[in-house]
User: Fold these one by one.
Assistant:
Number 1:
Amino acid sequence: MTALPQTDPQTFETLKDALRAALPEAAVITDPDRLAALLAEERDLFESNATLAVAPATTEELSIAARLCHAHGVPMVPQGGNTGLVGGAVAKGGEVLVSMTRMNRIRAVDPINYTMTVEAGAILADIQNAAAAEGCLFPLSLGAEGSCTIGGNIASNAGGIGVLKYGNARELTLGLEVVLPDGRIWNGMRPLLKDNSGFALKHLFIGSEGSVGFVTAAVLKLFPAPAEVQTAFCALPSPEAALGLLSLARRLSGDQVTAFELLSDFACGIVCDHAGGVFPLSERAPWYAVVELSTSRKGSDLREVFETILEQGFENGLIEDAVVAETLDQRDRLWALRERTPEAQKRAGGSIKHDISVPVSDIPAFIAKATQAVEDYMPGIHPCAFGHVGDGNVHFNFTQPDGMDKQDFLAHWDPINEIVYPIALSFNGSISAEHGVGLLKADEISAYRPEIETELNHRLKAALDPAGLMNPGKFIGKGKAQS
């Protein structure tokens, strides 16, 4: 692996002076109190100890900052809402943390083209609300939407609960504006569905975790706002039944399934015990699904269609019990059982987490095989599987056995990874579905993908960031850079 860039103290001080001279006072942050929020790491797995941050308010200010950092050979670490789960925005001493939160304008909403133009620091929930105000929908939705930024969503190719119908952030991004590592600006803000005028350069930056440039603005794809939404919480006998119900729902609804989320009884139980969840059924079951259908057509028969799906699900033995939300409040309570699972797991004890994707049809076999293998390794461990089963993404987590010390449990993180990851790959899966690589998986990612993929990743990194200054030590993993 190419050596990470190092910054000598004198060069760093010289850069600091240059940034202060070139940028407004508010854009250069050295005060420890202002830095504190930027240095917090969501899962407390990594220490972020940068002493200098830049918070540009415009693309031009970021361009100046990047040009100066590049000239001084100082690494840069992009950061959005700082809600990532893999340490991708952790900045060390000698690195400049670049916060995008001041670039937060929604520049335009176009309900005719069904597009929105936004800056990278715009909060996801604000984007959703701005779309709704124009009778449109921006469908990207995830647990951190009240604080995560669209630039971070794009840089991590965020998924969330709507991928089944609408796709990841990659499918929702039409155009990008990017500041390159040397400070040059690429304006690819074309709101086009069709553009075959060259390589699709935006895809080099979407999902790149800030390793080759700064996303500063984007043109997003919008959809007609739903006129009707139907949500049910279903008790299921098995993950196999979940796939049967998903197939049934897609077929009978004319593919109007917006979300299909699976969670185990253990996951549901800890939400009720630790995160304010209210169990809506009379009896517990091994598995549950939150199923949601939506349509933009007013006066539809969606509720009747949904009831037909549930009736056939009962008749076919796919559903053991179900409740359909009658009000928005009830819908929110049903969704809380799924969305509060990560919060509940924090409170339930130590947890070892995996962000796995496999082909949808292989989800039951993967869960069964990997669960058995981990339970054989550590009897008494609590499997806590949940996730976006409609798109093949399972958050395959484990909570510590009763009575085990948390730190003793977390010491088994690597051995359990070494059990779970090969099983995921045996199903032609991925060990990084939607949370990214960051620091958490940077040391191991190359071992779980073909050698040629690692080589191509390093070739692209070397071409776009030859000095290796963008978010060093993360994302692409170990390997030899090719020039």
Number 2:
Amino acid sequence: MRAKLEELMRLHGQEISVVRRESGEEAAVRGFLQPLLKEREDPPAAVTPLGAVNEQRWLYIGPAGLKLDVGDRMRCGGMRLIVQEAMTVRFRAEALYCRAVLRQEKEAAV
């Protein structure tokens, strides 16, 4: 099952750069990023065909072999994101994929 998921990521995933918080090492992966759906009363929101989304929080699905830690950073397109929470999703003893909730990185004051 893991091999099938990783094949889907390789064929259809986005190019994502992961920068480790501790070491600054950078790794390139292919995975999926999408904005998280949000509650109506939580501003700011953008309306999409999926419904209202929060463009400040994103869901990442990527290969299980890349373990993420809180504080790691990701770049995809022009977005800069920071890992808020991460976990490896397993089926029985097999690690299937990594799942993380990300937030947009705040721009540094100049």
Number 3:
Amino acid sequence: MSLLDDAMVDCVLMEKKREPDGAGGFITEWYEGASFKATISVNTTTEAQIAEAQGIKRIYSVITNKNAILDPQDVFKRLYDGATFRVTSDGHDVVTPKTASLKKSQVTAKREELPI
């Protein structure tokens, strides 16, 4: 087990479901889906700091195991504090090589409250 694995916390994908509201519209509900582990840290690169100074939300780096690759616009919840995040990149773009001993994927995400 690596230090990276030790830093991983329990997370769960949030799935969106829309039901008719009886008046021609719909009601959106969120429910917990598949669970996975991830490390979530604030991106402190110069580019991220410039973006944040210009009013863009704080950017997070999220690392998952290769068997839990996240897709753009996926929403997930960190279980220990209930914080929710929306993925802003594609987990298939940054993965460790097949020959690497660590089998990981990385995405960027922003913290976001779930819309109702």
